[in-house]
Amino acid sequence: METISHIRNCFVSAFLLLATLAGPVSLAAASASADGDVLKLNTVVLDAGHGGHDSGCISADRKTTEKNITLSVVKKLGKLINEAYPEVKVVYTRTTDVFVTLNNRAQIANRNNAGLFISIHVNAVNSTKPNGFSVHILGQSRDKNRDLFSYNSDICRRENEVILLEKDHSTKYEGFDPSNPESYIFFNLMSNAYYEQSLLFASCVHRQLARGPIKGDRGVWQDPFYVLWKTKMPAALIEIGFISNRNDLAVMRSESGKDQIARQLFQAFKEYKTMYDSSVQIDADGNEHLSKALAEESAVLSGEQSEKELAGISATSYYGVQVMTLGRKLAADDPSFKGHPHRAVKSGNVYKYIIGISEDLENAKAYRERVKARFPGCFVVKVEGNVVKRIN
């Protein structure tokens, strides 16, 4: 029951917090009906990255652009959602080859009181070797004590630099400069009300895209994308592949490849919506309870190590699985840990959160294998005092 409470808190307390921070804009996406269902996901905004005079990334042969790939995938995804959930309002930031500012993309989502914002993009680097997909949510960098700008800086700068294509951008964006690390300081002051829900959706996307057709899993990241910061709802930015990689490009050029990517994203949406819609129900007597679907999900999320077992392990030297790094201390029962007991190790100005703690390295490695689907990007570490060393 403790784990069920964690999951319920992930949705319910988040919405109570949203009511305080964002008012009716955030809560309008959650509908309550006469039969007692609460927290229905009834509006989703699909954002095709770039467009118009902003082509985004371009293939080496100059024949394929990011703006066309993203628009195609978004339309396919929207069609799948409409067919499966005719009651869900699907809103597009663009349906043609037009330029839409980052501010306007966020405003479209906010104006429609969306319950979820999905932004589709394509990655690129100078080398032809890197490949694979990645999922990004707004948040503090998770590794190596790096600040928000320096970690994943290339992709953050590229996606945010769309701002520079706008006229009078310095006034519209209040002096925000995508190339200046100091401009990213204000991201640390953001509301964290949507973190848990964004992470949950990102985990769904990660699991589905890992099935292909793009080969290469680059994990779930927390990064300072401007468009995610301005949306008042759970949101994720998805880099579906590298246009600079021959194999990824071949998939994204083919209709069958884009169809499969759209289907995987739809399955992620379906999985998330099921948990979102069934998180809490109220019976005829006004009593809260969780649906069968979410109760079954809670069994999967439940922790494998008890608090008693954790207390019996040395607090100064041990192995474990690092699942996140944050600039603040989370409560012991925070839903982000999904029921897993943990230790928070203060390292510089950040806290590193460790689960699956053991005095045996092989036990820690086995624990990671069991939880890696639920904690994308987690890795095994050795802790000695306040020093946390990653073990490859």
3D structure, described in words:
The protein has 392 residues and is α/β, with parallel strands linked by helices. It contains 13 helices and 15 strands. It has helices at residues 2-22, 24-27, 66-84, 102-111, 153-160, 169-172, 195-209, 226-230, 246-253, 255-277, 292-301, 307-311, 361-371; strands at 30-31, 40-41, 43-48, 89-92, 116-123, 133-137, 217-222, 235-242, 281-282, 288-289, 317-326, 342-347, 350-358, 379-384, 387-390. The strands form 4 sheets. Strands 4-3-5-8-6-7 form a 6-stranded mixed β-sheet, with helices on both faces. A hairpin with a 2-residue loop joins strand 14 (379-384) and strand 15 (387-390). Helix 7 packs across helix 10 (255-277) and helix 9 (246-253) crosses helix 10 (255-277). The two termini are 35 Å apart.
